[in-house]
Amino acid sequence: MTSKTTTGRLLRRFLRDDRGAFALMFGVMAIVLIALGGAVVDYVAMEQGRNRAQVALDAAALALQPKIFESNFSESEVQNLAQAFLSERMGNDKLGAKIIATKGNPNDGSLYFEAHIDVPTSFVSLVGVNTLSANVESKATREKLALEVVMVLDNSGSMASESRMTNLVDAAKCATYILMYSEVQDKPGNSNTCIPTASAELVKNVRVGIVPFTMFVNVGANNANATWMDKTGASSTHFDNFDNDDDESRLVLSSGSYTFPTRQSLFAATGQAWRGCVDARPHTKSGTLSTEYLDTDDTTPTSGDTLFVPQFAPDLPSGTGGNNYINNTTAIVSSSYLNNIGWTTANADSPAICDRPAQGATKCTIEEQRTKSNGNWGNPYLTKGVVDTASPINFVSNALYNKAFYGALPPSCACRNPTYGSWESVNGSTSQQKRTGTCASFVPFGLSTRELQERVCKYQQTIGSQGFSSGPNADCTRTSILPLTSDIKKVIDTIESMVAEGGTNIHEGTVWGYRVLTPGSPFTEGGSSTDKSISKVLIIMTDGENTDYNLSNYCNSAMRDLNGKCYNTAYGFPYNSQNTSSGSTSSGNINRLGPMGTSNANLVTQMNERTAQTCANAKAAGIRVYTIGLATDKVSQSSQSVVEAMLSDCASNAGNARLPKKSSELRDVFESIANELSALRLAI
To answer: How many domains would you assign to the chain?
Structure first.
């Protein structure tokens, strides 16, 4: 056998032998199998990397989206910021992540990013696939909300203590700057406030309104002729505390061509300009909600009791109260006579403009007496004044002022310039004489204290300059409402003009803040309440509590017995509330605040209830409410717990009620609220 034959045979045997084939095949396939099995691991790693990139890109889009509203917005600059953000959040140098597209659209509020990521492989690299790649996208769309904020700010007298008003002004100004500018800084030398930075820009679509309040709210003297003001006496409360016929049991609103003078005409007659305050509307049910009343809601003022009545504080009779601003300076008769018959206020409350003019058979017959002492006759004094029953009644005369109405005859009378008869002895006495006198135009005497308060004749004369707490504008807040505006100068000027004086009516401040925010009259600057692109916010700040004044340390019992409390407020007097007496000239069974005889504690409770009702109505209208109660531990007419509960319930949630103890904390409180509202402007 040759070697060639042997070699051939061995080759054929090798080719026929399959005993090592599996090992060979496994060796070849092992690489593929390992790559396929490891592909799952590489895929999971790629998905983890993509998820991490997605989260990072979403965060970058949300964080940088507000920049599209900036005037110097640049897509390339934002992309660079987003790239840095993405790289930091990925936290793995082996993962390649690069933003490849950026699109910003200020019109629809969107910012779009697309990023490409490369994830290195551990297993499929064995078959030549060294990386796995993916693209991720993120789009943040946030509508830029319009923001309407009304700050209701306490201007009461207690705000003058402990630098409260000073700190409130600083805090409110700082909040305004935060809301209306893109960037602020501490004001040099005054850490209680802030100012815009030099590079700050005005923020668009932000408007702020201010409602200062005391016992009243000033709606602005420029609104005297607004359609929502009661200029004709249409409201049932318009003529409260006024009368025209020297008879307190009736009020004659019209007689022939005569009509009762409106409050506006009384202001004109006195020479006083209406400062701008209005009375509260009657507490009359107006809507379906249990909290909706004319004085707690924003019912459109169109007619009757829905209209707003200008404040006109009545002149109080001499001896009954502080706001006695019309006095007769010339004595009519001897004071001894007045004391003898009990008409101690007749001189002071009988100005000549209120005399009854000569008309037909009008006649007053008086009797005077005098006494002789040490050979000399003393000054005469009045002992009797009789009105002739034939004197006319219910007539109109222009003799003393235009269209004056004269009704029932007064109980008695006196003459300013009588025609006298001769002196004659009294019962034959040599030291006592009497004489009679007559006059056609006479002074009405014997009027009740209420009639002396209500008679409108006394306003038909110029009364001279009056202070904050006197005259027909008594206790009217000096600073008027500033409706919603984007004019920051007007906002700051209004805040800086506030003065601390007067009482506290949180209810009236709150309801006017609510009305400023809603779109209907009286103030129409507010956007639609159904427009979801507008966020409406009410911030109510007070240094304590609602206050009223049926208290002996504020006035004497004569005043409280006459009217039910010491001061005329936005609700009038308790005497004017639910007065069903047929002899009353008040508005009848209309609920204002009272009724007569209500204790001061219950008057305050009613004010607290109406504050709560107003807040409930505002929240039901979609308004976000914040409350700030400063120094509630120092309240005197309510308990601290009652006041804090009212303010907490008034706020939209517990976190929106702030209760700082010191006025130096006001900046932090206002600043935190303003910062929250700035963030609120962006809604995902």
So the answer is: 3
